[in-house]
Specification:
Rossmann fold; 2 domains; three-stranded parallel beta sheet; alpha/beta; 7 helices; 233 residues; six-stranded mixed beta sheet
Length: 233
């Protein structure tokens, strides 16, 4: 495991423990009450492996602290959002109204992350996001959500700069998943690449449920220096 991955895991674990400790001390859970942590991610469908990896990670973190914090027990309640925004809304309501969770974590897909912001704000539910919506720290800043990951466009700024200044590319085609993550990543690349004199000549958006990529790959122009591709799982 590389040093930067170790550092990221430590940061996520520290953020989660800090949030749990804050919840334990602010009255959201009574003195003797178990702290209920709701976890939601795609545990089935094409994004299932990423969701399962997230779940195993949080279980490992809780095992390391003995499923306790600030002298209180932790209960983990898992829900499968199936990578579907409508299902995610229903599972969120179940976690809040039936399970009465004190904290929400998980959330992989950015379109689901954006959709959950209004109910999280309404319910004032402390939440840890792994998903990467740019606007969580820009237009729609939420005081109830802590993003433990990068902003979607952020790493693509460096790639756009490298493609233009070091690789000397002039024309690039883009192909990406058709959700906010894909759009924001390509947008980050395009902004810096074109600031350096390059040009994104084509964008192809692939539906999230696509299993056959051939119809989309054949649309990519051959008259480019490179292809910038953004996909998850």
């Amino acid at each position: 495991m590389t040093d930067w991955i170790r550092s990221l895991l430590k940061l996520v674990l520290a953020s989660l423990v800090l949030t749990l400790t804050m919840a334990a001390g602010t009255g959201s859970a009574t003195a003797a009450e178990t702290i209920k942590v709701g976890f939601m991610a795609p545990l089935s469908g094409i994004f299932a492996q990423a969701g399962k990896d997230m779940l195993e990670g949080i279980k490992l973190a809780f095992e390391q602290i003995g499923y306790q914090t600030a002298g209180r027990k932790i209960e983990l309640i898992e829900e499968d959002d199936e990578g579907n925004p409508a299902v995610a809304q229903a599972k969120y309501r179940k976690l809040v109204t039936q399970d009465r969770v004190h904290i929400l974590t998980g959330v992989l897909l950015s379109n689901i992350g954006y959709g959950l912001i209004p109910p999280i704000e309404r319910d004032q539910l402390p939440t840890l996001y792994l998903t990467t919506p740019d606007d969580l720290t820009k237009k729609n800043v939420s005081k109830w959500i802590l993003r433990t990951n990068f902003a979607a466009s952020q790493p693509m700024h460096a790639l756009g700069d490298y493609a233009a200044r070091v690789l000397k590319y002039k024309k690039v085609a883009a192909i990406a998943m058709d959700n906010p993550f894909g759009h924001e990543q390509i947008g980050g690349f395009q902004r810096v690449f074109e600031d350096q004199g390059g040009r994104v000549t084509q964008k192809t958006w692939v539906p999230l449920n696509a299993l056959d990529f051939a119809p989309y790959l054949t649309q990519v122009s051959r008259d480019v220096d490179a292809v910038c591709a953004v996909f998850v799982a």
